[in-house]
Each structure stands twice: as structure tokens, then as C-alpha cells.
Specification:
Radius of gyration: 33 Å
CATH architecture of the largest domain: Sandwich
CATH topology of the largest domain: Immunoglobulin-like
Helix content: 25-40%
Distance between the termini: 115 Å
Number of helices: 16
């Protein structure tokens, strides 16, 4: 038997085999202590290495990584009013803030070695090679984020903590739809930090236009190329003066087809005053509507998925345009009127930006009825273009309203009067006939598949118009319009229509209780003509019929 040092300095006699089978307690504690210290050192070393290699400076030490870094620097994820900035690793390594997810972080670091191999092997070691492989690399990242439900994004962005009152309408709608459909962040937010190469990828094959919303509308591939930008949108060569913006072309003047009919109908024979009775408009709620400048944005462009990211939702979920864009219609108009690209396809909708023209006009809309007639009232502050040109010298202002027969025109419930505006109309991008005006595909007067049209004209001696849009636009035929009066007080315009609910003429819809009517309106301001107007999104009205939860609906109450 051997005498050995025991626990806490005691001695005990144990054989070799006893010592082997049962080590003293001090040895166990010593081993545990060494293990803990070793584990801390190993973990700390790994974590230190992880954090050191997560630095942006380390990432861009491979010079080709400076290319996506420059993209990041231009995005709101790098510099914003809150002073919050993300690094490369925040999106490409940190899979979650859960400490037990360390294994995935290590996996992401190992996957990042692919970039190092690409650098050393010369696959992406020049800007040209990087650009050639950019889409391929982006698709790998998108697939990974899709697989993990965009965990990297959700480190900062969570549906449940979003303040919808501070979001734009379209953001709220999109996020609600994403929750319903089980979508993840990367499904909609490709290209928000780096070059949006997904746009080219989406349009590489011949895309199929979406036409389900309006049966009969011809399929349309996206515009092969935007119309050539005007001098206003092209940078001048270095050392040369920038060219002056082009004014609206003279050929856009209103055609003779728009003139009021010579033979006065009942609707046209309106007295200069007294045609509309005194009404108490204080009892009619005021609806604020932003009419905006549309440029050459045709119905086909709006409904084409490669051009417009919401086209699928418009079709599949029957979402009216106003649900997403009522709040930011002003931004859309300001971008288009300035000749800037819009939509997913980044298409320039105005090749000749009109000098000084506003992008939108806020309009107050009201409506009431008395059992036999309906009255529509519009008020807004006059806008004046800087160039002072008069495309329609007779009329400082024209206001046109169109509405269907209560669900009689497919697509009107979503787009309003936009269903009449097509890419092949005069002054549009694919115009072939300078006399071709608005129309409805598959129009049929007998079944009500047409838009009723009423128009106020401000020119002296100009008569109001009571017509319709079917397979072509007709500026006469209706007998429902009783009066159309307009008055300019200071800088404010007020226009009021009075119309018989029963209609009574060709192209007149009957307006009755129990139905929902889909409408839109346009304002030609400051002597403008043709497409150089302001237009509304699609709206709805009904008689004494409150409808909850439909933001673009107006209840016309009897007075």
C-alpha cells in the first residue's frame, strides 16, 4: 500500500488501482477549474476573432468588397436622421441576437470564405468581374434570408413593434399583406441597400402582363425602353452649360373633338347663375383628395407586374390603388412631373417635364343628394405654371368627372377612371393616332360597360359637357347633367355639378340607392390640355350607404 496526499492535506493509504478508480476530490476540482478557464479562453478567443473579422474595415480589406460598401453608404441603412448605422456583418453574419445561435454565426463565417477564395482565385478580383457575378451572389444571399425568415432583418425590424401611424399607407398595406401571406422581408425588400440587380433579373425573360382585373385589356409587355429623356433630365457634358428644360410641346393642344357640341342639349343649356340651388355644404363631410400629375403612366403600366410591384395585389386581393397610394400620391406626381423614374421598372413617365408645373394639387371633395339630383363639389387652390404658355387658351380650368354604373366596368372598382387611359392614346408613349382619345376595352352601352362623363369648362361662353367613354370618348349624348358651375375667388376655385339621378340620355348611368359607384376626376389647370392634367386615384360613392373599412369610399347623404 502506498501513502498518498489525500483531500485537504490528509494522508491515506490506497493501492495503485484504488487511486486510479477514485481520484481525490482536489484533482476533480483542479480539472474543473482548468476546464472552465480553458473554455473561457477558447470561447473568448473565438468571440474576439468573430468580432474582429466582423468589422467593416476587415470586410473591405478585399478591395472588391468596397463596391457593395459604396452601395451601403448611399442607403438609409448607413446614414439617417436617427444616427443608426449597420455594418456588413449586421446583415450578412448576425443571424440573430440569441446567444445559443452561435453555431449559425460560425457557419456564416465559413460561408464567407467563398468570397476570399473568389478574391484569391481571381473570380471577382476586379470591378468588372464583380459586376458580372453580382446577381449570382445576390441570389445566394436572398435564398439564405428567405430560408431563415429574414432573421437578420428582424434583429431590428419586427411587425409587432411597427408604429403604423407613422408609416405611409402603402407600407401599412404591404406589411399587413405580408403577414397574411406569410411573406418575409427579403420578398419585397431586395435592392434597398445594394444595387437593385433583381430588377434586371425579373425582366430578363419576356414578362407576362396581368390582365385579370379588367377582362378584355390586352396583355402588355413592359416598355422596352423609357422614352428618351428631355434635356432637363440629361446631365450636360463637363464644361458645358446645362440645357434648358423642354416646355410641353405645342402639339399637345386640345383637339377639336373636345369642343362642346353646337346643338345645345338639356345639360348644356345651363344659366350662368342660378342653375344650382343654395345648399348647406357644411353638413357634407369634406374629403381631401390629392390629384397628381400622371405623365404617360397608362393603365397597362399600372397593371403590369414587372413595372408595378403592387400589380399582383391589385389583381389577387382587389386592392384599390387609393388604399396604398392616397397618402403619397403627391410624391408620385412630383417624381413624374420632374422626369424622374418611378415604379419597379424605374420608368420615366414624363419625357418632357413641363416647366414650373406642380406635381399635385390638394382638392376638397363633397357630395350630397336631394332625392332627385346629386351634387358634386370640388375646391382647390389654383396652380400656375412658370412658363405661362396656354395650351388651351379658351379655358383656364377644365374639371372632368367619370363614374361607372355601379360595378358595370371591370377594373373601375380598383382604378377608377384609369381604366380609360391606355398606352396607345394620343400623346402617350405608343401613340399611333394623334386623334385617339380615351376608351374602354370591350365597351358596351347596352350592358352599362361605359363611363359616364361630365365636364366643367371655365372659358367665357363655354358650355359644360355631358358625354361618356365607351369604345371611344364622346363629348355629347347625355341629358343627366343639369348644371356645371365654377367660380374663382382670389386664388381658390370652386366647381359644382348638379346631375339628375335618373340620367336620361345616351351614356347616362342611373344613380340609385344600394349601389356603389366607382369614379375618378381630373383637373386641367392653367390652360393645360390633353395629358398635362392632374388626376385622382379611383374612389367610390353610394347614396345613404355607410361602408366601414373602405378608405376611398364617400357616403352621399340626403339633404
Amino acid at each position: 500500500m502506498a501513502e498518498n496526499q489525500g483531500f485537504c492535506g490528509t494522508t491515506e493509504k490506497r493501492s495503485f488501482w484504488q487511486r486510479l478508480k477514485r481520484p481525490p476530490a482536489c484533482s476533480i476540482l483542479r480539472m474543473m477549474l482548468i476546464g472552465i478557464i480553458g473554455g473561457i479562453l477558447i470561447w473568448g478567443g473565438l468571440n474576439m476573432g468573430m468580432e474582429w473579422t466582423n468589422r467593416t474595415e476587415f470586410c473591405i480589406s478585399c478591395h472588391e468588397m468596397t463596391i457593395p460598401f459604396e452601395d451601403l453608404k448611399k442607403s438609409i441603412h448607413y446614414k439617417n436622421r436617427a444616427g443608426i448605422s449597420v455594418s456588413c456583418a449586421d446583415c450578412h453574419v448576425a443571424s440573430s441576437k440569441n446567444p445559443i445561435d452561435y453555431g449559425r454565426k460560425l457557419t456564416m463565417k465559413l460561408l464567407a470564405a467563398r468570397d476570399i477564395i473568389g478574391h484569391l482565385s481571381g473570380v471577382v478580383d476586379t470591378p468588372e468581374k464583380f459586376e458580372a457575378h453580382r446577381l449570382e451572389m445576390a441570389q445566394r444571399v436572398w435564398a439564405r434570408m428567405k430560408e431563415t425568415d429574414s432573421r437578420e432583418c428582424r434583429n431590428c425590424h419586427k411587425f409587432e413593434t411597427m408604429d403604423k401611424t407613422k408609416q405611409k399607407d402603402r407600407s401599412v398595406v404591404k406589411h399587413e399583406g405580408a403577414i397574411e401571406d406569410g411573406k418575409t422581408c427579403i420578398d419585397c425588400h431586395k435592392g434597398i441597400v445594394h444595387k437593385p440587380v433583381h430588377q434586371g433579373a425579373a425582366q430578363a425573360p419576356a414578362p407576362e402582363a396581368i390582365t385579370a382585373a379588367a377582362p378584355g385589356v390586352a396583355a402588355s409587355a413592359p416598355n422596352a425602353a423609357p422614352a428618351a429623356p428631355s434635356a432637363a433630365t440629361v446631365a450636360a457634358p463637363k464644361g458645358e452649360a446645362a440645357p434648358k428644360p423642354e416646355a410641353a410641346p405645342k402639339v399637345e393642344a386640345a383637339p377639336k373633338a373636345e369642343a362642346a357640341p353646337k346643338s345645345e342639349t338639356k345639360a348644356a343649356a345651363v344659366a350662368a347663375s342660378g342653375g344650382i340651388p343654395a345648399l348647406d355644404w357644411s353638413k357634407a363631410p369634406m374629403r381631401n383628395i390629392k390629384v397628381f400629375y400622371p405623365g404617360q403612366a397608362a393603365f397597362e403600366w399600372v397593371m403590369n407586374k414587372p413595372d408595378h410591384s403592387s400589380a399582383a395585389d391589385i389583381i389577387e386581393k382587389k386592392r384599390p390603388c387609393a388604399k396604398c397610394h392616397e397618402g403619397d400620391a403627391n410624391e408620385i406626381g412630383e417624381a413624374i412631373v420632374a422626369g424622374k423614374p418611378v415604379g419597379v421598372s424605374k420608368t420615366v413617365q414624363e419625357p418632357n417635364p413641363p416647366v414650373g408645373k406642380a406635381g399635385y394639387v390638394p382638392v376638397g371633395f363633397q357630395a350630397i343628394h336631394d332625392g332627385s339630383k346629386i351634387y358634386f363639389r370640388f375646391e382647390w387652390q389654383a396652380q400656375k405654371a412658370a412658363d405661362g404658355k396656354k395650351m388651351d387658351p379658351k379655358n383656364e380650368v377644365k374639371l372632368t368627372m367619370m363614374f361607372d354604373g355601379g360595378g358595370t366596368v371591370p377594373g373601375a372598382e380598383i382604378n377608377g377612371c384609369w381604366v380609360t387611359c391606355h398606352k396607345d392614346l394620343r400623346t402617350m408613349k405608343e401613340a399611333k393616332d394623334e386623334k385617339k382619345t380615351k376608351y374602354i376595352e370591350g365597351a358596351d352601352l347596352a350592358s352599362g360597360k361605359f363611363m359616364d362623363l361630365i365636364q366643367f369648362r371655365s372659358g367665357k361662353g363655354e358650355k359644360p359637357v355631358d358625354g361618356y367613354v365607351a369604345d371611344s370618348r364622346q363629348m355629347q349624348g347625355g341629358k343627366g347633367l343639369v348644371a356645371a358651375e365654377g367660380k374663382k375667388e382670389g386664388n381658390k376655385w370652386v366647381v359644382i355639378f348638379a346631375r339628375n339621378l335618373a340620367g336620361g340620355g345616351k351614356g347616362d348611368h342611373v344613380i340609385e340607392a344600394g349601389k356603389t359607384y366607382y369614379f375618378g376626376f381630373a383637373i386641367h389647370e392653367d390652360y393645360s390640355a390633353a395629358r398635362y392634367h392632374f388626376v385622382s386615384l379611383g374612389y367610390q360613392f353610394g347614396l345613404d350607404k355607410p361602408v366601414e373599412g373602405v378608405k376611398n369610399y364617400y357616403n352621399v347623404v340626403k339633404q
